[in-house]
Specification:
The chain has about 375 residues and is of the alpha+beta class. The protein is about 40% helix and about 15% strand.
Length: about 375
């Protein structure tokens, strides 16, 4: 008979054989692990997709909030600018870029309530060359306006690598033919409006000829440190056709005085008060703002410009009362708004309607255009 000690020795773990239960547990554990891995392979992509959707919807919600804030900020800024136009129109018989509607505080500011950063740029549309005069001028005056347009195009990008002078005659010709209805509109529809003018918005020029897109003539161009202005700064389809002497940029004045383009600099010097007739620095206008330069108060004052006389006017076929004005009622406003990752620019065109009393309240405003813009608006030399 074996002793208990011998029995214990013969049953050592090293020689023990796994039972059926242990083998079954190991098999079940392997199956469970396989199932878990399969479930993980299925669930993980769904979880990742769910997390992505949550993040995307969260960002979308933030963007919607930002866009709503931007919408309200742009509308608020536009109403402020309109209020300035209304205030400026009371008892003020001239319009210059020194007026209250172009105050520095409106050009760039941050809306404290929403955190939206705003910048505004106002253009006097009556300081520009009105392309409708190519069709609406009487008799031989059409040819005069076309010659002015050629000169403007020769000068608007002068001294830049984007100089367009070599294409001036071609560009002026295609614009003239388009405005006079001598060119088929092709695929460009003309909306049914009360206006019978051939051209409703300046951007139609992109359809006149491929040269406008090829040379990027309408928009501002930046290449490194060099900036070339676009024709949008000098051409318009709004206004009376008369050019405001106090706001017309240099290329527009060079176009009008196409025989004597140097007179443009002298006109600008005169209105800026660079001459002996400049008012003292502490003078102010009727509205209490600092008087900007020495603006023209009558178109015939152009004869006060150094070197100007009747001979020069006749040579350039300029009739001051017909070609010039000193007051404007057509303006465009470009407002850019940005908040964190969202940004938008809106472009407005409005007409200020004077009341019967020139020194009284403004009758109101006509809103002529509102559109979102994506083309660049650079700071050109004359704005620096």
């Amino acid at each position: 008979m074996s002793s208990p000690k011998d029995v214990r020795t013969s049953m050592t773990p090293a020689t023990a054989t796994p039972g059926i239960g242990q083998r079954r547990l190991r098999k079940d554990a392997g199956i469970a692990l396989l199932v878990v891995m399969m479930l993980a392979a299925i669930i993980i992509p769904f979880a990742a997709e769910f997390a992505y959707q949550i993040a995307l919807e969260s960002r979308t919600a933030y963007n919607v909030t930002d866009q709503l804030a931007i919408d309200n900020a742009i509308e608020s800024q536009y109403q402020i600018v309109i209020a300035r136009f209304q205030f400026d129109g009371q008892g003020n018989q001239t319009d210059t870029y020194g007026d209250t509607w172009n105050d520095e505080e409106l050009r760039s500011r941050t809306d404290e309530a929403t955190g939206v950063t705003l910048s505004s740029t106002v253009f006097d549309e009556q300081g520009k060359f009105n392309v409708h005069m190519l069709a609406e001028a009487s008799g031989d005056r059409k040819a005069v306006w076309k010659a002015r347009l050629v000169s403007l195009i020769k000068h608007f990008r002068q001294d830049t690598k984007f100089d367009a002078s070599s294409n001036a005659d071609e560009v002026a010709d295609v614009i003239s033919r388009w405005v006079n209805g001598e060119t088929s509109r092709g695929l460009v529809p003309k909306p049914s409006t009360t206006s019978d003018r051939a051209m409703l918005v300046l951007e139609e020029l992109h359809f006149v000829s491929d040269i406008f897109q090829k040379e990027r003539l309408l928009e501002d161009i930046r290449e490194g440190e060099e900036v070339a202005p676009g024709l949008h700064r000098f051409l318009t389809v709004y206004g009376t056709g008369k050019i405001n002497l106090n706001t017309a940029p240099k290329p527009v004045l060079q176009g009008v005085f196409h025989q004597d383009p140097d007179l443009a600099d002298r006109i600008i010097e005169r209105r800026d008060g660079a001459g002996e007739d400049a008012p003292p620095e502490d003078s102010s206008d009727e509205e209490g703002d600092a008087a900007g330069g020495n603006p023209f108060t009558d178109p015939n004052q152009i004869l006060e410009v150094e070197g100007m006389d009747q001979t020069r006017l006749v040579a350039n076929k300029v009739i001051p009362a017909d070609d010039f004005d000193v007051r404007s009622n057509f303006f465009s406003v470009r407002i850019a708004a940005q908040k964190e990752q969202s940004r938008r620019e809106e472009y407005f065109v409005l007409e200020r309607v004077p009341g019967n009393d020139p020194n009284g309240p403004i009758e109101g405003f006509r809103h002529l255009l509102c559109q979102e813009r994506t083309d660049p608006l650079e700071t050109v030399e004359e704005e620096q």
